[in-house]
Amino acid sequence: MIYGVLIKQHIYRNFETFELGCNAYKKIEVPFVPYVGLIINIGLNSFTVKKVVWDNDDGIFRCNTKSEGNFFKDTFDEEIIFLQKEGWEIGSIKEPNTYISIDEEKTHD
């Protein structure tokens, strides 16, 4: 069985102050249910899954991630252009209304 996964990665305007610029999203497919701690490699970049949410409305797993490498460009704008060329969507995608969350702190039903 193949599972759809939507990866969410924070993109910061400033890494020293962690000023959030936007979120980047990428849809992938995996042959298993994603889980907290999973490391996903996309190209030369690695992402650790920090939270997994099943979106019942869209039939997809939503994963919040933390980047494990530095693929960032010189400026925020260059980073956005790079990510878009790599197939990432930039901006906000709706948060699920009906979900089951599996994360490090707690489980929602």
Describe the structure.
The protein is mostly beta strands and 109 residues long. It has one domain (3-108). The protein is built from one helix and eight strands, in the order βββββαβββ. It has one helix spanning 76-85, and strands at residues 3-14, 19-30, 39-42, 45-55, 60-67, 89-90, 99-103, 107-108. Strands 1, 2, 3, 4, 5, 6, 7 and 8 form an eight-stranded mixed beta sheet that branches. The radius of gyration is 14 Å and the shape is elongated. Mean pLDDT is 80; it is low at 94-109.
Residue share in β-strands:
over 45%
Element pattern in H and E: EEEEEHEEE
Q: Figure out the total of helices.
A: 1
Number of domains: 1
How helical, in percent, are the residues?
under 10%
Mean pLDDT: 80
Number of DSSP strands?
A: 8
Contiguous low-pLDDT stretches (5 residues minimum) are 94-109
Largest sheet: 8 strands, mixed
Cα shape: elongated
Structural class: mainly beta
Radius of gyration: 14 Å
Give a quick precis of the structure.
The chain is mostly beta strands. Helices cover 9% and strands 51% of the residues. The protein has one domain.
